[in-house]
Protein: Dipeptide epimerase
Amino acid sequence: MTTQLHASIETFPIAGQFTIARGSKTKAVVVSVALERDGHVGRGECTPYARYGETPETTLAAIEALAPAIAGGMTRQELQRALAPGAARNALDCALWDLEAKRAGTSVAALAGITLPQRIETAFTISLGSPAAMAEAAARVAHLPLLKIKLGAPGDAERLGAVRAAAPNTRLVVDANEGWHVDDLGVLLEVSRHCGVELVEQPLPAGADAALADIDHLVPICADESVHALQGLEDLVGRYDAINIKLDKTGGLTEALAVAGRAEELGLAVMVGCMVSTSLSMLPARLLAAKARWVDLDGPLLLAEDRPGGLAYRGGVLDTGASALWGS
Structure:
């Protein structure tokens, strides 16, 4: 029996508006995949990202082009060679993991030899806005254990101070989305340290981050846009203290696990992150939590409505139970 491939573009409205330094959006557009074989269905999801030259249409086309190979029994290892790291490979890789687990009557975690932590605290993201608006948003969720603050525009010192005042006891990480200038870096890192920030993510543009090797890291600095997959990981040593692993960048769980292992060897801490997407994307990424110091898997919390059977979030803690949606 062959494996049948079904793929489509889906849209999920965002609750309100999601804003970062590069712009705002009101909906999450994902590409979902279902692989059917022997009465079992494996699922995957990806979020094409314009910053990396991806669109939903080109991603869907890349996935559908592999339908004959999938029908012929393409393995995850063969998939790694057929597609470069990116969104299209992510959806297929995660669907193949899910299908393999279901056919074997086990879980993806068991297949991968992973034991989830008993407690997974995830960040909740505060969109970029005025200091007052961000402080108001932070005050509403100040009871959560970890907030991720979107920055990357003039006035960031004021924004960060306002958020800290509104949420004095909450752990904070900052994401500048390549929006800071090297001349302001020292001051903004000092403000971050003063506000008790644990991590500053991608302060400089990916193509202009060499300066990070020559400054004092008053707060640990994390690579996001500067790191995608295994290739080039060694080049980050000396510039960054941590990396943000996203399955849409690595091209799926297979390479993400390899990246996490190599990062540990290089002395780089790990954050596991996500795009704005549904629980179908969070569930595979959740398996990296055992290797991560920071977890940022709040994508479904930013949506007006998640997929049926999605993950449960309780007070900023991610459900670690089995899910019929993916992986078990």
